[in-house]
Amino acid sequence: MKRRAALILMAAAFTATGAFSAFPQQEARYDLLIKGGRVIDPANNLDRVMDVAVKDGKIARVDRNIPVSDAAQVVSAKGYMVTPGIIDIHAHVYYTYFTSAARSVIPDDICFPSGVTTVVDAGTAGADNVEDFIALLGRGRSNTRVRTFAFLNISRTGMNEGEQDPRMFNVQAAVNMAKKYPDFILGFKTAHYWTNKPYDELHTPWATVDSLLAAGRAANLPVMIDFFPRAGDGTWPSRTYRELILEKMRPGDIHTHNYARHFPVIREDGTVNPDILEAQKRGVIFDLGHGAGSFVYRNAVPAMRQGYLPNSISTDLHGANTSGPVINMLFVMSKMLNLGMPLGDVIRRSTVNPARVINRPELGTLSVGGPADIAVIEMRKGNFGFPDTSAGKITGNRKLECLLTVSRGRVVWDQYGWTRPQWEDIPRDSDYWQNPSDSKY
Length: 441
What we know:
Blueprint: H1 2-15, E1 32-41, E2 46-55, E3 58-63, E4 74-76, E5 81-84, E6 86-91, H2 107-111, E7 116-122, H3 130-136, E8 147-153, H4 171-180, E9 185-190, H5 207-219, E10 223-225, H6 241-248, E11 254-255, H7 274-281, E12 285-286, H8 297-305, H9 329-338, H10 343-348, H11 352-357, E13 374-387, E14 393-407, E15 410-414
Parallel strand pairs: 1-4, 1-5, 6-7, 7-8, 8-9, 9-10, 10-11, 11-12
Antiparallel strand pairs: 1-2, 2-3, 5-13, 13-14, 14-15
Helix pairs in contact: 4-5
């Protein structure tokens, strides 16, 4: 705690002339300078102590010993990690989610405190309500600042009872919306379809997956699949995991909840299902998608020990699991870290990998000229428990915590007030009474 306090005081000393625009100063070369942190940027093979400078919402320079005098505002990140803004490609941030407990999720509130600057809503909205979702992002508390995309649900009504009704699986409606909003809709999603009721002429085994893939092919976009394998019943054939990942899914398509209990991840002899490794090798994306019921250590631990790792780490976060077992993106990343995934791989699967999965290569990196999305992260040491979605937990000695988040060059999360001066150091003729967050909403 003494070390943290010292660093915060150092940061305050750096930033005393840059926290408020009322403080006079000469024109600075950079808007923000984050000094002396361990920069981990897998996209650029960087893992060393460096400085990161920001100008006009872009990464302006990543180098050693950038002069403090060049920046309007300086933060010391000595002893901490500096990473690209975290990307969560499976969350639910649209208010019509099918359980009322989840309706309170707001992107800024759940993302910025964990360093997430880009979030993808995974199928909460369908063709009938995606325009309301888009409008909602610009209403209410004002424009949502988290960069938000969506996988459109193949059910035109979104994530509700329409997911059980193949008459709602409207391929053309989904494709039309994807073409209308190409900067928002990244692909298509299916989930929860007909998990235990008997098949019939309407509810056939592959109705939702086949409709989803038809939309993906028509729009030339990837799909995300939340799937429940089921045996046949004598009249209808089985829908098997093997057929899904080896025959149905295309390279670039995303299988989420990869360590869920209902998948045959580990065979009876304790080895990883070879179908999974074959599918991953041919380009199917395996996404963590933790959620409230889709991550169990009995699958994750032996699988990871044998080298089966998710291509991307994501939360499946919604209002029903923010108090556990998900909490936030960094808590999920901490689980991977304590299961033995190297830190660089944890960051890679939370930045550059998901950026490539969603075909947004400009994100998930600190490349000069790219968006200034940055997280400053502390590696806390202690004794921590990390529950799964069944009855178990692991204990570990490392936990990731975000101290500062920058989105598009703007500080949006500053847990300890690094970018503010001590109150008594503010000149009396400045507008002390102004709320710095007033301009953000």
